Amino acid sequence: MELKEFAEVILFGTNIAHDKLLNPKVLTDEQSYQAIIAPKVPGRPIGLQFNENMLEKKISFPNQHQLDNEKQRGYVLHFFANHELLAMEIMALVLLLFPNAPKNFRMGVAKTILEEQKHMSLYLNRMNDLGVQFGEIPVNDFFWNCLSTMKSPLDFVTTMSMTFEQANIDYSLYYKDLMNKIGDKVTANILNIVYQEEIGHVKHGVTWFNRWRDNSKSEWQSYVEALEFPLTPARAKGIIFDMNARKVAGLSEDYIMQLSVFSSSKGRPPCIYYFNPACEQEIARGAIGFTPTKSILNLQNDCCSLMQFISTKDDIVLTSQRPSLPFLKKLQDCGYHLPEWVLLHKNNSDIKNISQNYISNLQPWGWSPESTNIMKSFLPKLIGKNVFLNEIFKEEFYLQYIKSLYSKETAAKLIIKLKIDLKNIEFLLPEDEDLPKISIDLNSVDLNIKYFLNRRNFRTVVLKAPWGCSGQNMLRVQTHELGTPDKNWILNILREQGALIVEPWFEKVVDLSYQAKILENKTIIPIGSTRFLTDLRGQYKATFLGKKTDDLSSELMKFIYNNYENYSGIEEILKATSILVGEYLIASKYEGPYGIDAFIYKDERAQHGYRLKFLSEINPRFTMGRVALEIGKRIQTGTSAIWAHLRVKDLLNDNFKSLKEFSDYIETHFPIKLSEKPKPLIQEGILFTNDPTLATSVITVLIVGKKVLHDFTKLTGIEIIK
User: Fold this and answer.
1) What does the pLDDT look like over 20-75, one tens digit per residue?
2) 650, CA 20 to 30 Å: which among 391, 402, 463, 520?
């Protein structure tokens, strides 16, 4: 039989047994003919036509827990059988659209059709055994919609062979293993046949793709450029990722590695994330064009990829530089989902860089003039009627409701009100006389300093600018007789920000935070508490994960875990405080992530020897505590761990001349040990959480295990926990 006749029967026939499964003994390709115009839809029998009874009969793809049920297994095979049928019809269309394509290519396509027919026959017979008839549930037309308008054989091998069939390598292997696991050996054997032959189908496509593509570019770059929206490389992967099969199929090592860490939404509109840790400074500046301090700029450049831990694999993270493949692969191997990366150029991103038609949400680290300027470029693609996102870009709304929430004045005022709500545990909280005071001129600053130093007998008083990053824009004084530099600093802050917060410098023993978020429907979702460390300047240094209090004295642990009235420990008090703060934020029309900072300090006059400053700061944004909680989800329960920020200059010495030398040594001597799959958890080792090949100033590391931390401290001389 001639390929033309064979293809016409496959494409236009309406009978499964006699047309779609036509199996000629010999196929030839001698006849010349004109290319056809692609039909709107392929021929199908009633019950298998596109969009037929979709609303009445549509079912979701069965999940893993439903596969013990024979009917559900039959439905899985029904989905697979339709994919085989679509593949056959599209391959028949290729033969009819491109009669002048190389004969070896055309015969290879025909051979693939014959194998797809075999797969479909196996599926149909097994479906019958399981009590499911072909056409019993609706079929989709996604493959057809993507390929029926193809312009060349290159389009076919790119989309069918190297995308849909490549993904089927993963799916057939995954479901083969699942069927074996539940004892369905018959179905598992069928899927094994499909798996083995699918590798050959991909190999056929790869061979021709590499003949036809632009060889001045890499295989990966050529593939990405050849795909047409709405397809992305994410469609070339399944639930698992079979590297070995891809190697057998002839794909290059670089292509396989690139694909393994690639992520993009397959349909769900993504959320866009952006890291702007200088948001408080940007707010204080009050206009676009703010240049952060060098330390904050370094943090932004080195750690912009940290937003990946907050995002999901369907989301987009804006970044100044894409993390390296080996770095991303290590994170992926530890069970972390990877987002899609979109590059920012000089803090500007073109909406054209976002391939998706729609965006579900916009999530900067914090809302500031800079972040709103960046995010507003994506507004044309934003879907839904989210009131907050529709208002946040209006200057009058931002100035009236949001700007003040970032000010330390807000926490200083709110702690007084919230202390009334917590009056049943007043003995745990700061005395009223020790609460922060707000000064609006140099004279009131002087009076408040005198008050805390003389009347309350504190040795040190701290002055804080309303808007300032962690540990910055603050001044500690031990006398009210201020020198000229200190006075100038005070006057400058008063002139630029209008106020200063004056409060005692307590003898802190434990820093704490509580993370939460406010949903669009105004629901407050508590996320969890953290214990964190700061340096002598008050700047963030590390967060404890897993066991958080092992290094503390028994007396302090008792204070933390005691029951107080109706609260089962300090964490419950922080949770209650967080909810009260959330209610305040809702009243101020805020929506999104937030965190509160708190700390425990020594006080000999207190009933328990300690007090809890239950609200020291409000952060209406993402925080490092939130990032730490997300990172901690991949740590095995009961394990001691710490997530630390380290300065690169502190790591370089006679032993390590470069950060690469350091990171190579660490990864070799402190390898990650994981629990059993399918959901691996980190049991021990050190994991870099921003890319050490890109960092210049700040490196973040997850250190898991007490001995690992001890050995790391001994090696580097850096005492994270003192």
Assistant:
1) 999 898 999 999 999 999 999 999 998 898 876 555 567 789 988 899 999 999 99
2) 463
Tell which of 362, 384, 406 closes a domain.
384
Residue 392 lies in a domain: no
What is the CA 98 to chain-centroid distance, rounded? Answer: 42
Domain C-terminal end among 453, 478, 502? 502
pLDDT at 468: 78
Lowest pLDDT segment from 60-64, 471-475, 517-521:
471-475
108 and 172 assigned to the same domain: yes
- Domain region containing 569: 507-628
Q: Domain total for the chain?
A: 5
Residue 228 main-chain phi, psi, to 5 deg: -115, 140
Asked if residue 102 has a cis previous peptide bond (ω within 30° of 0), the answer is no
Residue with tokens 């916009």: 362
Give bridge partners of residue 514 from the DSSP assignment.
Answer: 529, 596
Count of helices and strands (H, E) across the chain: 26, 19
- CA 554/CA 532 separation, integer angstroms: 19
Query: pLDDT tens digit string along 295-331?
Result: 888 889 999 999 999 998 889 999 989 999 999 999 9
Are 29 and 177 found together in one domain?
Answer: yes
In this structure, are 112 and 212 located in the same domain? yes
Query: pLDDT tens for residues 662-687?
Result: 999 999 999 999 998 778 899 999 99
Record the tokens describing residue 412, joined without a space: 């200083």
Token readout for 579 is: 């909810």
Residues 237 and 303 in one domain: no
Rounded-to-integer distance, Cα 600 and Cα 356, Å = 47
Whether residues 540 and 620 share a domain: the answer is yes
State whether 562 and 593 are in the same domain.
Answer: yes
Is the model's pLDDT at 235 over the cut of 70? Answer: yes
The one-letter code for the residue type at 234 is A
Give the CATH number of the domain where residue 110 resides: 1.20.1260.10
pLDDT confidence of residue 372: 93
CB 364 within 8 A of CB 276: yes
The one-letter amino acid code at 386 reads N
Helix (H, G, I), strand (E, B) or coil at 503: strand
Is residue 480 situated within a structural domain?
Answer: yes
Q: Which residues contact 566 (CB under 8 A, 6 or more apart)?
A: 424
Name the more confident of 86 and 64. 86
Residues 242 and 134 in one domain: yes
Q: How far, in Å, CA of 504 to CA of 613, rounded?
A: 12
621 and 639 in a single domain? The answer is: no
Q: Write down how long the chain is.
A: 722
CB atoms within 10 A of CB 69: 12
Amino acid identity for residue 522 in this structure: K
Instruction: Round to whole Å and give the CA distance between 689 and 331.
Output: 8
In a domain, residue 59? The reply is no
Which CATH number fits the domain that encloses residue 457? Answer: 3.30.1490
Burial class (CB in 10 A: 0-12, 13-18, 19+), 295: middle
Cβ within 8 Å of residue 161, ≥6 positions away? 201, 202, 204, 205, 206, 208, 209
Does residue 604 sit within a domain?
A: yes
